[in-house]
Specification:
Number of helices: 6
Oligomer: single chain
Radius of gyration: 16 Å
Distance between the termini: 41 Å
Shape: globular
Amino acid sequence: MMGSTPDSLYSSVFKKCVYRTFLIALAKIQVRLSGTTGLIGQLEAVLRQDTFNRLPAIQAPTLVMTGTGDRIIMPSSSEVLANGIPGAKLIKFEGGSHAFFIEMRGEFNQEVLDFLRVS
């Protein structure tokens, strides 16, 4: 699946300064400690999960956030979530990757705090 190192996956997904200093090291440790079995199981669970028809039942204030440059989860998936959850707020971080919450932590934190103040 990912081979012995996830460098090629992360290099195309995250901004280099982020993945080189943090994410690659974490992924290598995870693979070293638990092998790829856990990663494969997680991917299988994600692919089998389907709760789309239950989105309208969510009653809690909901904030959906995405990076427009995410190459793992398509930003349009966040639009589907936000549109399916009554009253959900969608925030798109322009140019943000899958790790927008790290890359743009200042804006991310501010959006979360603003949402919590209103909710």
